[in-house]
Amino acid sequence: MRTTVHTGAIGYYTSRIAEAGLVGVAFVAGMPNMGYTGVKGAAVATSPLSIAVPAAGRPPALLDMATAQIALGKIAQYRNAGKELPEGTAATADGVPTTDPNVAEMPLPLGGAKGAGMSLMFELITSVLLGAPVLSSFHGETRTAAGTGRTR
User: Fold this and answer.
1) Number of H helices, E strands in the chain
2) pLDDT in tens, 87-144
3) Which CATH number fits domain 11-68+109-139: 3.10.129.10, 3.90.226.10, 3.30.1370.60, 3.40.50.2000?
């Protein structure tokens, strides 16, 4: 699929594939909204992935996750509840780790550099296979939204 970077719960789609007796695997490219270890600011996407495996007589085994420690929506929930974020889950816009949901603007990668590396690899796979290079358009000089030609 092209020109989309938000699919909701991608496990829905892979589950449907597994219910048909096949293994469903999905990666999602996205706009950079997560810090890469050692970099200030957003450098990679939270890159959701899902794998569903069929199981006879029961629902498929399903993995539906992102490569971030915490979802952006969860940061908003902490903010609305007036609670501090768990340590090591989010950072300010310039990449400084924080537990304050009022200044947290991006999640940090699950497993540090490993999660960021997974995100980068998922982006490369989806960019090469689908011809929708989100990262290059985001980090390039014109900064256009992938596939739209619109400058951000």
Assistant:
1) 4, 8
2) 999 999 888 999 999 999 999 999 888 888 888 888 888 776 666 665 555 555 554 4
3) 3.30.1370.60
Instruction: Dig out the tokens for 138 from the structure.
Output: 């985001």
Neighbours of 11 (CB within 10 A): 21
C-alpha–C-alpha distance, residues 78 and 15, integer Å: 30
What is this structure's pTM? 0.73
Is the Cβ–Cβ distance between 81 and 102 less than 8 Å? Answer: no
DSSP H or E run through 140: none
50 SS3 class? strand
Q: Got the DSSP string for 52-121?
A: EEEETTEEEEEEEE-SBSS-HHHHHHHHHHT-PPPTTSEE-TTS-EES-TTT--EEPBTTTHHHHHHHHH
Q: What is the distance of C-alpha 19 from the center of its chain?
A: 25
Residue 79 to residue 94: CA distance in whole angstroms: 19
